[in-house]
Write a structure and sequence with these properties.
The structure holds 2 protein chains of 2 kinds.
Chain A lengths: L8 E5 L4 E6 L7 E8 L6 E6 L4 E2 L4 E4 L5 E6 L8 E9 L14 E6 L1
Parallel strand pairs in A: 1-9
Antiparallel strand pairs in A: 2-7, 3-4, 3-8, 5-6, 6-7, 8-9
Chain B lengths: L3 E4 L2 E4 L5 E7 L5 E7 L5 E7 L6 E2 L10 E5 L2 E6 L8 E9 L4 E4 L3 E5 L1
Parallel strand pairs in B: 2-11
Antiparallel strand pairs in B: 1-3, 3-8, 4-5, 4-9, 5-6, 7-8, 9-10, 9-11
The chains are: A mainly beta, B mainly beta.
Amino acid sequence: DAKTTQPTSMDCAEGRAANLPCNHSTISGNEYVYWYRQIHSQGPQYIIHGLKNNETNEMASLIITEDRKSSTLILPHATLRDTAVYYCIVRVWGGDYGQNFVFGPGTRLSVLP
Amino acid sequence: SAVISQKPSRDICQRGTSLTIQCQVDSQVTMMFWYRQQPGQSLTLIATANQGSEATYESGFVIDKFPISRPNLTFSTLTVSNMSPEDSSIYLCSGKGGSYNEQFFGPGTRLTVL
């Protein structure tokens, strides 16, 4: 699986958009970009994923650059409950043994009142 | 999406003892995994739990220390054997499945070894 690079930490004001970047310059053509977050003392929670098109769901938007070497997770109106560690992971869709998620250190997002 | 529960949610154990953690998924998943998350760290994969056969362990983890069972598609156990304070961590169960073949995670078991 391709390696990802994320900033260690970010702050965001409550009510503003939080834009979390992720670099994955070695991503291969069949690898998807997944985003998870982990709120303190909880298991990781799936947010969104995409291949090459931008995606949006009720939680967030995912913007993937045309060359697919980077992406941005957007939380449009951050709340205090969005304070968490956000993980960007690239992985081949499906697969059997070995197709688990490899977690890097992630970005610690602090939403400030 | 699948809902994953773990028991116990937390435990405090004595050095040299063993603890078995149970993981139950509310729907069938294709694969199940066990992760460890040490204080302040990211998640590290321990092993893939294989139904009806021996688990597949990652480098640095061995069956004698972390025996795993998966008797069916929705249940798995992880045992932490002969515990030492270095085993104090959160242990997370995960299952792969769902519409988008994503991974779901349990709430974790917080283990403290004295």
